[in-house]
Amino acid sequence: MEFLAYMGDVFTPINFGLLLIGTIGGLILGATPGLSPTMAVALLIPFTFRLDATQGLVLLGAAYTSTVAGGAVSAILLKIPGAPANIATTLDGHTMAKKGEGARALQLSFVASAVGGVFGVLLLIFLTPLLAKWALAFGPSHLFWLAILGVTVIGSLDSSSVVKGLLAGCIGLWLSTIGFDDIMGAQRFIFHSSVSGGINVIPALIGLFAIPQVISMFLKGRREREAEVLTVRRHPITEAIREVFRRSRALTIGTLTGSFIGLIPGVGGQIAGLVAYDQSRRMSPESRKFGTGHSEGVIAAESANNAMVGPSLVPLLTLSIPGSPTAAVLLGGLLIHGIFPGSDLFENYPDVAWTFINSMLVGQILMCVFGLLVAGLAARVAQVPNAVMAAVVLGLAVFGSYSVQNSMGDVYVMMALGTGMFFLEPFGLSAAPLVLGLILGPIAEANFIQGKMIATATSSTGAYFFTGLLNLTLIGLVVASVAYSVWMEVRHRRYTTKEDAMVRGETPT
Amino acid sequence: MKTLFAAASIALMGLTGAAAADSAENYPERPLMLMVSYGAGGATDFQARIVTMTAGNEDALGMPMAIVNKPGAGGRVGWNWLATQAEADGYTLGAYNIPHFIAQSIEGGVEYSADSFEPIANWGADPAVFVVGADSEFNSMEDVVAYAKENPGGLTFSGAGLYVGHHIAALQLEKAAGVKLAYIPNNAGGAGAMKAVIAGEVLGGVNNLSDAFRAKEAGNVKILGVFDNERSDFLPDVPTMQEQGFDIDNTSVNFRGVMVPKGTPQPIIDKLAEVVPTMFENSRVADKMKAGGSPMHVMTRDEVIEMWKAREATLKELLAGL
Amino acid sequence: MSDLPRTQHIVASGLIAAVGIGVAYISYTSEPARAFLFPKIISTAFVVLALWTFGKAVLGKTKVGIGLSAEALRNILPGLVVALVYVFWAAQALGFYTASGIAFFLLLSLYDPAPHDAVRTWVKRIIVTAGFVAVMYGLFAVLLNVYTPREIFL
Hints:
The complex is a heterotrimer.
Chain A: H1 2-5, H2 7-10, H3 13-31, H4 37-48, H5 53-77, H6 87-98, H7 102-136, H8 140-154, H9 162-177, E1 179-180, E2 187-188, H10 201-218, H11 237-246, H12 248-261, H13 268-283, H14 295-307, H15 314-319, H16 325-335, H17 345-348, H18 350-378, H19 386-405, H20 408-424, H21 431-457, H22 461-466, H23 469-506
Antiparallel strand pairs in A: 1-2
Chain B: H1 2-21, E1 32-36, H2 43-51, E2 65-69, H3 76-84, E3 92-98, H4 100-107, E4 117-126, E5 128-133, H5 141-150, E6 156-159, H6 165-177, E7 182-185, H7 189-198, E8 204-208, H8 209-217, E9 221-226, E10 254-261, H9 266-281, H10 283-291, E11 296-299, H11 301-320
Parallel strand pairs in B: 1-2, 1-3, 6-7, 6-8
Antiparallel strand pairs in B: 3-10, 4-10, 4-11, 5-8, 5-9
Chain C: H1 3-29, H2 37-59, H3 70-94, H4 96-111, H5 119-143
Helix pairs in contact in C: 1-2, 3-4, 4-5
């Protein structure tokens, strides 16, 4: 309960002021396409030069917390996931917004984020030593199997045909191999100078999700406005809070998956949201409703990606190893003040460490409050006429993908992938599995090669990849996941082929 | 629409006039950009952010310097971009890492060499060190080499990638000790390589002195030797490789500094070469660098040109045997 | 299923399969072979899946996907041309803010259902465009200090 002793420090005027600035600024930055939490935190580092260590970290912690949640805003309203963490949010969240339930989707997402986030930070407070062991348990062979587990999710994600889901996943995996390979440095598939640096995930995300949507807005042509006016339904906040807790299955799965997968260095943060989404769909009796604007989808995805915030800092705070790019940037924020994180951080600088963690805890609540305050207003975005919306999203996509690394090549990649995606969608290929392939490709490949190198030097490849409890557990999960997909596909065929074709036919996007 | 076109043509004329007047005298007129070819949060990125923080001061450049990260493939992505796509107008600068980019250009497959860039100034020198987990049975380099001799090719140790400082250090160690080792390049850079050591995935690792120092302070690793000519001020107790009987010099020391693409106007290079080192010597910068455990080593443009030449020669010799 | 989507399915899946075969060919023939191990595995799966989809399309058994109608394509074309010219040429050549302003205005004019002959419509479109460019400038240039390609007007 040591953290309570330092709770007061969060509420000193300066710290609390910074917390407010960080939270509000973070929500805005997070909602800006192209600004991933890592970028947003890196942009704030120069501001912390002038602050003392505690103040600087309060600002960074608050910003980290709220940029992750802020990403849901553009994911829901514009279908632009600001970071890989928000991909799963678009699947149901944007569908809800299109039905006029944007306010409800945003409220659910903020409440679920806060619940997941608070749980994650509490884990960080109470279970750090245990979590540190878990974070280190994943070596190359385990990360390889984890990536393969992710690949098995691909087949069933946001597509009613497993074969086409896998095909989209393969295209994504191939796209991920473009550029220099990370270990050998060999050049692969560089057919244009824009991709000489490989395909950056963020511009690809923006293009694959936002551009097809822009083009399908053109699809309706110059139609009279009356036909498309959408009533944005108001939604009482208390109702949203009640709904989140009523959907306790999705909330629990999201929070737990986010906390434990988010902890795995280098992998977790990117896929936690999608894995949580997939798991809660599989366990839900209403699994058919997922993807059609079902609240469980939003709750699982958002609780997962905020639950990840606290645990993702465990390797940094205890072992001094940044487990995610954002943690690496936060490490910089600590080092500038001469604070070396490590197992003795809490003994040497308890005031800094605990105030930082407390500020993330309070930040989660503040983020939720501000988010809920503006949710109703923000949801009106759905009422913006099609023509304006298409132009705004296109402009944001261009600026957002350029600002990732000031590169025109990224903008070209964004547009090319997005246009291609638009022409693939009518044929049953969708963006989510493609992006998942793009994310998982490098993880699977690099860890396979590293594992193989270690195995060749020490034991045999077979022994390295196929023995040990963690390996076997992961392999078991992979097998179970594949079996489940096959079973679903077979059952699907028997019962719902016609109905399914009709459902897809009604929603030409 | 007419007025719009009129405005456009006036603006176009204004632009051509402004371009002609654009000389070194009022340089810089707008914010500069420093490309870092490693991800946000890495050692190079972290140090670049500190050493450029005073760029906006009146006694420095008078304009802020924004850091832009172009990570990938051990730095190749960023340097390729700087050599081929960046505008050589004096507003696009890059951070260099020696021996990384020179070693990569010798190995081939990239579009740059030492001749593609003009150095401006050097800010830091971070030697490589050999680390093992805190509970490892190795206590000196002698133990490590003895193990490697018993298990040829069986001593796994991590580093940040191929043809970077860590890899050079590994090659030097192999050559000097006359043993075969299993160098495992990590795709997640120095942090990933360090994690592999602490988690016990590999028996040891080569890593940056600054990162290893931190990990040692946290009680996670032991540092067995420094790949440099002298001991480090941060680690006065850790012997160099030479002291432990291995003929290894400072070739792998990671020098970090600022450069511009070839073709940048000479007056601008001269101006930068004059101002940038003073920026690095600013006391606020030095304090922050020291607090972060990052060894500083300021060198002027002329010194850096010499250093690049010397490195290129030694690296060519070392890599010839591969 | 009518014949139009079926033909479209055959063409689309045929193109994907062709790309897959190209990728596989490069993967199996490039050097160093060590670095192409992973692409070989992926491209093999890619080709198998793409041929499967292609086969189903030829047999007319495709279950999902509704294809694109000619009317839809006609509606899309002008907007798509504006978007492509904006991204691939104008943004770099004219500068981000100028090009964005022009593209934004053109898209509004093309797709906004308000009547073209009313002065109010045009005033409104210009104001909305100016507002958008101003917000973009405030966010990216002022707040985030992103240095976009040089402007012809600035």
